[in-house]
Design brief:
By secondary structure, the chain is of the alpha+beta class. It has three domains: about 5-45 and about 70-220, Phosphoenolpyruvate Carboxykinase, domain 1; about 230-295 and about 385-595, Alpha-Beta Complex (Phosphoenolpyruvate Carboxykinase, domain 3), CATH 3.90.228; about 300-375, Phosphoenolpyruvate Carboxykinase, domain 2 (Beta Complex). The protein is about 30% helix and about 25% strand. It is built from 16 helices and 33 strands. β20 and β21 (about 335) form a beta hairpin. The longest helix is centred in the C-terminal third of the chain and has 18 residues, at about 560-575. It is globular and about 70 Å long. The structure holds guanosine-5'-triphosphate (GTP), sulfopyruvate and manganese (II) ion (MN). Manganese (II) ion binds next to loops.
């Protein structure tokens, strides 16, 4: 492969001079080259080839035990001015950041091969796609990037002699967590990542580019990069409406994007189509509506909990050409994780590669173990998923994991109030990032770890996108919570395919086909408007889900919400001066309504 792009050549030459690999290999995107890399990775033990009859072209990988999730504490926005990273991001001066990582990466690829991956976020050649070059010394990264993005020579052809590409440099170094850094330089279109080999830290097209860098680009260029799934809902008449939804990591995006509607709806002929499961790039179309595009080409999904009942489409997506990371490897060369089925394998190793006794109570698969599966494998992939224009959005849904407080669903009063609803999102932390699990934290628009600039400016950008659009063209904004718990810690709402009952209400609201109850926080369904026909769910022994439970999870407890108001004030104060006045007013107004 010959590189004709001066900027790319310079970036590769500089990276080579710094990291000093034994050789440089350009990823051309051919199956032969990828196959040769798989062979090498198997030879060194980096990957294990799985049972090729049961899981054709599937591989297994274990990360280092200290390297199993995103590291938010070691992730930095390196803008020239600290103010532009904002109070919710770690900030490092770019000069200092380059120097720091120069010193860590220098000579770090000695004895290793440096791979150069030209990749496209979005369909190659689409005017809305963006190109990156990821340099890495990890075959695992190359093979994952080849699933998650479009890679190879065709990307360089599409780039031509343009300088508009993201420069990503990843070096494994020694996987030393004390020297692990995930650095974004939004003003330089540059990413640096060292001392990790875990997904979100090293597949630089994903969170680092498609969210942190792209959110900054979107702010400057008038579009949005969001941590959202995109799905299409086809009704029995064959019309499809699209929805995007932002939930924090491990809060149900992949599941919702691939859901199979409850039996009641399937019978009638409703279908759900997946456009994307994690990231949406949203632009205003020629007709003034918002269009969402999935910049990725694969799913990097949470394995535990995925099964033939909860998410058969995700499971089907992983049956070919998939890489499994940190799950349990079985003797027959297949894989297992918690809740895949009720038969934990005996006499096998856990995700760490240590002998594991399922009866010990210890988990076999890491809670953040993942599959990397090609999107095209998904049985319900939308025929529109590679439409370069994206799909028009009828609704945007925000959601979090809240044991209490947030009701099953509510609708915002209008766009501005909807932005407020997104800005006050909160969720219990999960295993997708290192640190404590189950702590409620504010996570606006599910972007707390992914916004590449000041959070207040980001809110303003959301408001501006609305102000410059006709109100009737704007997606309606909702909030959902599938995760309300009873006093014994059981999920009250059945979730998964039954969430379709809520989606139905949302679409009806978008089409003005159903009334709603006004509450201090927004519009909540009248209980009779959530269809419970055919719902058969046992919350706990002897307690089936019924009308009373629906009543509970639709009830707004002013006491809890007033506690939340105090917490939101603190959060806004932390973000600082840049929180738009409109949102502060919304907060005051909500408090007033709650006190009445
Ligand atoms: P990231 O890939 O980290 O961004 O996660 P995600 O938002 O795609 O979450 P995912 O769909 O993988 O779900 C994470 C966990 O939430 C899994 O254990 C699911 O089983 C569980 N989950 C998803 N949807 C529901 C639901 O409707 N109800 C309940 N109770 N659990 C759910
Ligand atoms: C998330 O944590 O939101 C993920 C997984 O989607 S990672 O790619 O690791 O960020
Ligand atoms: Mn995610």
């Amino acid at each position: 492969m010959i590189c004709k792009n001066e900027g790319v050549c310079r970036f590769v030459a500089e990276s080579e001079a710094l990291a000093q690999p034994d050789q440089v290999v350009w990823i051309d995107g051919s199956e032969e080259q990828l196959e040769e890399l798989r062979r090498q990775a198997v030879a060194t033990g980096e990957m294990i080839k799985l049972n090729q009859e049961k899981l054709p072209n599937c591989y297994y990988h274990r990360t280092k035990v200290n390297d199993v999730a995103r590291v938010e504490g070691r992730t930095f926005i390196c803008s020239r001015e600290k103010r532009n990273a904002g109070a919710t991001n770690n900030w490092m001066d770019p000069k200092e950041a380059y120097k720091l990582t120069d010193d860590i990466i220098r000579g770090g690829m000695k004895g290793r091969t440096m791979y150069v991956i030209p990749f496209s976020m979005g369909v190659v050649g689409s005017p809305f796609s963006k190109i990156g070059i990821e340099i890495t010394d990890s075959i695992y990264v190359v093979l994952n990037m080849a699933i998650m993005t479009r890679v190879g020579e065709k990307v360089l052809d599409a780039l031509g002699d343009s300088d508009d590409f993201v420069r990503g440099l990843h070096a494994k170094c020694d996987i030393d967590e004390e020297k692990r850094y995930i650095l974004q330089f939004p003003e330089d279109n540059t990413i640096r990542s060292c001392n990790s080999g875990y997904g979100g830290n090293v597949l630089l097209g994903k969170k680092c580019f498609a969210l942190r860098i792209a959110s900054y680009q979107g702010w400057k260029q008038g579009w949005m990069a969001e941590h959202m799934l995109i799905l299409g809902i086809e009704n029995p008449q064959g019309e499809t409406k699209y929805i995007a939804a932002a939930f924090p990591s491990a809060c149900g995006k992949t599941n919702l994007s691939m859901m199979i509607p409850a039996e009641e709806y399937r019978k009638k002929g409703y279908k759900v189509w997946t456009v994307g499961d994690d990231i949406a790039w949203i632009r205003k179309g020629k007709d003034g509506r918002f269009y969402a595009q999935n910049p990725e080409a694969g799913f990097f999904g949470v394995a535990p909990g995925t099964n033939a009942k909860s998410n058969p489409n995700a499971l089907a997506s992983t049956r070919e050409g998939t890489i499994f990371t940190n799950v349990v490897l079985k003797d027959d060369g297949t894989v297992w994780w918690e809740k895949l089925d009720n038969n934990p394998p005996k006499g096998v190793c856990n995700w760490k590669g240590e002998p594991w006794d399922p009866a010990s109570g210890e988990k076999g698969a890491h809670p953040n173990s993942r599959f990397t599966a090609p999107a095209r494998n998904c049985p319900c992939i939308s025929p529109e998923w590679e439409n370069p224009e994206g799909v028009p959005l009828s609704a945007i849904i925000f959601g979090g994991r809240r044991a209490k407080t947030a009701p099953l669903v509510y609708q915002s009063r209008d766009w501005q109030h909807g932005v407020f609803v997104g800005s006050i999102m909160a969720s219990e932390t999960t295993a997708a990032a290192s640190g404590a699990v189950g702590v409620v934290r504010r996570d606006p628009m599910a972007m707390l770890p992914f916004c590449g600039y000041d959070m207040g400016d980001y809110f303003q950008h959301w408001l501006d996108m609305g102000k410059t659009t006709d109100a009737d063209k704007l997606p309606k904004i909702f909030h959902v919570n599938w995760f309300r718990l009873d006093d014994d810690g059981n999920f009250i709402w059945p979730g998964y395919g039954e969430n379709f009952r809520v989606l139905e209400w949302i679409l009806k609201r978008c089409e003005n086909k159903v009334d709603a109850k006004e509450t201090p926080i927004g519009y909540v369904p009248f209980e009779d408007d959530i269809n419970l026909t055919g719902l058969d769910y046992t919350i706990s022994e002897g307690h089936k889900f019924g009308k009373d439970d629906l009543h509970d999870i639709l009830t707004i407890e002013n006491k809890y919400w007033l506690e939340d108001v105090a917490n939101i004030r603190e959060f806004y104060a932390k973000i600082g001066e840049t929180v738009p006045k409109e949102l502060r007013n919304e907060l005051d107004a909500m408090e007033e309504r709650l006190k009445k």
